[in-house]
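Changelog-adjacent note: as of this version, every example in the card shows the full chain rather than a window. The one below runs 406 residues end to end.
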Amino acid sequence: MKILLVDLYNIANYFYLLTKFLRKKGVEADMLLASNMELADHPSWHDSSVKDSSDYPSWIKKMEFPLHPFENPLKSLKKELAIIKFLRNYDLVVCAGLAPICIQWANVPFIFISLGSDLDQLPFYGWTGNPKDVLDLTNKKKIKYFLIKHLMRRGVKRAKIVVLTPYQIGTAERLGLKRLRFLPHVLDTELFGPMEDEQKKEERERLKKELNCDLIFFQATRQVWTDERKKESFTDCKGNDKLFRGFAKFLKVTNKRVKLIVIEKGWDVEESKRLIDELGITNYVVWKKPMEKRKLVWYYNMADIVFDQFEIGVLALSAIEPMACGVPVFSYVTSAPDGFFYPDMPPIINIRTEDEIFNHLCELAKDEEKRDRIGKNSLEWIRKYCSWEKAIEKYLELYKEVLSQR
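Full-length structure tokens:
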């Protein structure tokens, strides 16, 4: 079984990790990246041994993808044909993002794993990203997005299986997709996990002294929340404003010294800073630059509570990761049909509104025992369902099923 995984942008290093873990299981698996595209996440953010592209393991392959077919159609066609030829060296292709546009022509069975907007937006609008970037489009770009939209629709429909999350079932029905599956998150539990008790206690005390606080709250989720992000055509809204408003209410009633640490990334960082200033909580919010995963694990371990997103209703990696560190997580997850989600709902604080955030902060801020209990339950849940050794078996089962139908 020879498998190729294709995510041109390497979103969240997810396909990098899938490939790495498949190889640990003895599978002949490679990963394909676009040599002419900027990666969303570099492998070095997860593996410190991979400092730049010269350090890539031999199983990472790179090829040029056709980015501007209108400017040089012949050159783009040559790139497309080279990719198709390369894909035919594999028994199965697993892909995400824009990859189905090329893969559908290769006559190789493929599985599409949605990472979010690649299913929510690309087959309907032909673009993903910041809505402000598509307000005034040239005719050339309108044609480009029109073609992407139709090629993505065609490509996704030709996948042997589409892997998605419960909130996307309605989207799949709109596209007429029938062969749907849910797969668990595959988490590097060798990296994400709780610190030793004594070390954690010492380092938390040091950080609390540095921040002059009693409680540490943390959010690593991108800042994406303004009104234009909440339109039906955009499903990447995180609802960060709800956190800031709920946190501001909490500060008015608590006698605890609290700091909220937030990662400075996302299209709405400046809007978040303005809102924080308007709410009068600037002195209680600490901004940190985006960081590699090992540093992120450290901050998860330092936190009393971690916040994810409060808008779409999806269990994201930014909730799974802190759960693996034994920390209580506030997030919003929608209910799912039987058999299309984990057997047990994750033990998160499942809430959506700023009032719910406020109320649960008031409860948990004064109850360390309950925070510890939720954190321990979260860790047990992750070990049961998302540890890479267990979760990767579900992926292997699906790959074998698809190949058995050839």
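Structural remarks: The chain has two domains: 2-186+389-404, 197-385.
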